[in-house]
Amino acid sequence: MTLRQTHQSFNRIVAFEVSKETLVVHVLPRDEQFSIPNKLKSVRRVLRSEAKRIAKAEHGSLLVVVEATGGYESNVLQSSVELDLSVHKAHGSRVRFFARYLRR
Questions:
Q1: Whole-prediction pTM
Q2: CA 66, 17, 32, 63: dihedral to nearest 10 degrees?
Q3: How far is CA 53 from CA 4, 32, 44, 46, 62, in A?
Q4: Which of 23, 66, 90, 94 is a plausible cystine mate for 76, CB 3.0–4.6 Å?
Q5: What is the secondary structure of the chain as a DSSP string?
Q6: What pLDDT shows up at residue 59?
Q7: Percent of the chain, pLDDT > 90?
Q8: Per residue in 9-49, pLDDT tens?
Q9: Confidence of residue 104 (pLDDT cuts 50, 70, 90)
């Protein structure tokens, strides 16, 4: 599910792996990974920081990707919409199959 449709290319991605209590955040292209609590305030802080970093560099656009988990992804979706960021809710098994395909 893409909340905001766009035809631009993205060179910055913040991906969230979701569980009930925590979120594993992966930032590309820096290839940085860390965990945060699955709380609205924590997600906002990370996304706002990444948006500011991109604005300072004056290049690229940010895409937020979050796996669909039956509701635990709502903090990421809500924060992305509030900050007017492009966001994609990815189907977990499709992402895994795509990763397997890339590894061949």
A1: 0.81
A2: 0
A3: 21, 14, 14, 11, 10
A4: 66
A5: -BSS------SEEEEEEE-SSEEEEEEETTTEEEEEES-HHHHHHHHHHHHHHHHHHT---EEEEEE--SSTTHHHHHHHHHTT-EEEEE-HHHHHHHHHHHH-
A6: 65
A7: 54
A8: 788 899 999 999 999 999 988 889 999 999 999 999 999 99
A9: low
Cα 94 to its chain centre, rounded Å, is 16
Give CA–CA dist 51/84, Å, rounded.
10
Quick one: angle between helices 40-57 and 74-82, nearest 10? 40
40, two tokens? 């609205």
Q: Can you list the domains of the chain with their CATH numbers?
A: 12-103 (3.30.420.40)
Does the pLDDT at position 92 exceed 70?
Answer: yes
Angle at 13 (CA atoms; ends 39, 93), nearest 5 degrees: 75
Q: Is 33:26 a contact under the CB 8 Å cutoff?
A: yes
